Amino acid sequence: MSAALTQSATRTLTQSEIALLDLFVTKARYIWTREARDPPYSPSGEQRAFRKTFSYPSDKGAPSHVTLLVAGDDYFAMYVNGVLVQPADTHHKWDQILAFDVPLPVVQPNSTSSVDDANLVIGFRGVNLKDFAGIAVAAQVEYESAAAPDVFYTGSDQSWLGEKLFQEQWEQPSFNRNGRQQAGGATWDPAVVYSQDARREGNVRMVREEVMVFDRLPSNAAVSSGPRMDSASSSPRSLVGLSKGEFAGLYVGSLVLVAVISALVSWFITKRKVRVVRVRRKATGDLNLQSAGIYQPPTLPGMKVYDRQSRSDTPASSG
């Protein structure tokens, strides 16, 4: 089983995080992928993937942790640098803001590990149950040097990317979104940013003003990999994401299966007809067979069965 970060504690918001919460409420916007329907509506029972890459400034030194404020409609899974932080929680309330304190780097580095220490990659898999769909995020990156933190949020620019069809490893820092062989023609375009008034009825709020604190993974931990999904299903793999060879094999296999089923059905029907003929022959002893499995009844509808016999049996009149 792939590793994920473990929550070790909860704590109250710091002053800078209170300011981040205010920014989230006043400036952060919901984002989603472009759909056939006008925002903020999306097909029910579908999910989308989102990526944000933030490059650390070279003059601030190593990052220490990132605080993330997130609201998801209806629920979401969250990854930081390819590691699962928040599993998809079907009990999540769309109007609640959750806060996460994630260490950076998320995996303890060692002499043999290759860690991307220049970028922060945040991934979300958002699931929509009905109608309104969106993810809203505000993030604050802090540094070991005590330099001023960096803040970014959804809707501030077009650096948040979204996709309906997403492949294995989509949440990993090494994922190449410009690769030639993207499943179903995935393009990872900038996410659609909702306007300020595109909100669901009711206020999004932080029910408990506390932050979930997570521990760093050991260097030998296996990094979690997000599932490969299509736009219309929660199934880990879809026909849309199949390669040409896989699709051809599936198509040929389907034809063979249909042929076998048709042959079995035909054999069963023929056997049943022959059996019916034999049973009826035993019962009547007078069947006029025209061809195998088909018979002609001795009389036709409307024909008097005993008319001819009754006339032949009538004694001739005397005189």
TrEMBL record:
Keywords: Membrane, Transmembrane, Transmembrane helix. It comes from the Eukaryota. Residues 300-319 are annotated as: Disordered. The chain crosses the membrane at residues 248-270. This is Uncharacterized protein. It comes from Ephemerocybe angulata.
